[in-house]
What we know:
Layout: E1 4-8, E2 21-23, E3 35-39, H1 46-57, E4 63-66, E5 87-88, E6 91-92, H2 103-107, E7 111-112, E8 120-121, H3 131-142, E9 148-154, H4 161-168, E10 172-178, H5 185-194, E11 203-209, H6 216-229, E12 232-237, H7 249-257, H8 261-283
Parallel strand pairs: 1-2, 1-3, 3-4, 5-8, 8-9, 9-10, 10-11, 11-12
Antiparallel strand pairs: 6-7
Helix pairs in contact: 5-6
Amino acid sequence: MTRLLRVFPRRTSMTPTDVMAFVGDPPLERPEADEVLVSCSFTWDRVEAQRLALAWGQYYPVVRLGGPAFDDPGDTFTPGLFTRPGWVFTSRGCPHDCPWCFVPKREGKIRELPITEGWLINDNNLLRCSKPHLRTVFDMCKAQKQRIRFIGGFEGAAITDQIAEELRCLRIGEVWLACDHDGAIRGLRRAVAKLSWLPRDKLRCYVMLGYGGESIEQARDRLLGVWEAGCLPFAQLYRDEADSIRWSWEWRNLARLWSRPAGTKAVAKGLAAARLAETQAALR
């Protein structure tokens, strides 16, 4: 059996923690291995990943460099290899071609993978998979002891009454939706209405900010719209492939306030109350 050692340029919530997984440079004491796999998820870490491949290559004869940042199409998924236990990808790719998203370029259209056990579902667009695939995924989720977290971000427009009923039968930890542009608000509201049995703390929403010349006022208004729809927003500033955008303090502060649940709730409640007061005053 090939002994694989995995190396990552940065630690994330997905990074494995076993004795054959490392973040950064080689330590003084290194395990025996036949091959080193340097995995890079973000394009802005590519230079560091290339440096690490050279650093680890001083001690191991075979070093391979890859991962999403190097346009790996993700044709396979081995549980625990590049993620912690519990993380699952049951599909790759996406049927859409959103201009801000790297997925279509890297992974192409949606492809279904063999389903493995897990409770942290991270597919790019799970609900666009075939009905038999979804049925098998939901059956797998029902067998898990842990609460299920759909972290990949559901497309609001794809949540049907049938999908909502399937989700109702699961022990849900979190369902993540996405609202990256103004046109997604309507679909988000419909999705939240179908998932009204979930409290706001379990109904999260990725909200990309600043793409395509969006102003801070427009971004703030969309964040508030996500809150008023019934979700807990999670703001993310747009990052291009080279990570070349230098956001102002005002933008960074907006993203920070709307990415921490406690701060988000305080800000959103204040803005929602102010908006309601303005509306009531206008009706008098």
